Amino acid sequence: MMFRWKYLFTLIFLCLLTVVCGRNNNDVRIVSLSTTHSEILLELGVKDQLVAVDMYVELTNPEGTQRIDAFLVSSEDVLRLSPTHVIMAFPNDRLMEDLTRSNIEVHFFPPAINLEEVYGQIISTSKIVNKEEKAEKIILQMKEEVELILKEIEPSGKRIYHELGYSYGIYSANENSLIGSFYKNLGFINIVSGISSNHKDGYPEIPEDIIIQKDPEIIVIGHRETLNNEIENRPSWRRISAVRDNKIFYIDENLANNWGISSVELLRTIAKETEVLLPKQEKKVDSNIWQIYIVVIAVLVLIMRRGVTIKEKM
Fold this sequence. Notes:
Rossmann fold; 10 strands; 314 residues; globular; five-stranded mixed β-sheet; 12 helices
C-alpha cells in the first residue's frame, strides 16, 4: 500500500514538473517595452516568444512580432496580446498594477549604471526563457572585447561633455550612468560628474552657463535634436574649446540610449570617435616612427662620440 502511495506522489510530481517546464519553455509570451531587453532576447534566439516589441527595435524578420509604443501603451493594449511576461525599463505604476492584477509577470529593469549591471540584466532576462547558458557565453565574449578595448586606448585626460537632449532642457550623463562610467574608464574628465539629478538617476539637467564655464574640450552628442539646432549656432557656445576646435562628435541615438548587448559597441564607438582608440594601422605607424627616432638618436650619439674620440687623438 505504501509503495502505491509513493508511486502516486512521484507521478503527480512528474506531471507538475512537466507543466511548469512546459510553461517556461513553450508557453512563454513576452511583450517587451524595452529596446534593450528586446535586443537581448533576440540575441538569445527566442524571437518566437516575443509577442510584441517597442518601436525602436530592429527586426530582420518582423513576421509574428507586433510593434507597440512603450510610452503611449495602455493596459488594454498589452492585455489584448495575452502575454505571460511583460518587460519594462521605465516606471509606469498603473500599467504594472493592472498587469500584476491580471496574473502577468512584470519584470522591471531600470537603466544600468555600469557594465556589471548590464551583465546582471542579461542573466535575469535569460532566466525568463531558460537561456542562462547562452547568456553566460555572450557575457564572456563581451568581457573579452571590453578588456581588449581598454587595453588599446590612449587616455587623453581631456574634459568631456555628453549631451542626451536639448529641446526640453539640457540633459547629460554623470558618473552614475553607463555612459558616465565609460568616460571614466576611457580616462576623460566628465564635466558633469558630481552634479546630481532631480530624478535621482544618472541623467541630470544642466544649466547652460555651467557647460560654458566648465569649457569641455570634447562634446559628444547622443540625440537627433541638433539636426535643426547646430551646436555652433547656439548663443555663447562658440567660445567653448570643443566648438572652437571642432571636436564635436555624434553617435547613434539608439546605440547611446541602450544598455544591453550593444554596450560594448557603444564603448568602442565612443573610444574611436573621441580618438582615444586609434586604428591599429595608425598605432603601427606611430610605433614605427618612434623606432626610427630611437635609431636616429642612437646613430647621432655614436657619430658624436666618434667625433670626440678623433679630436682627442689629434
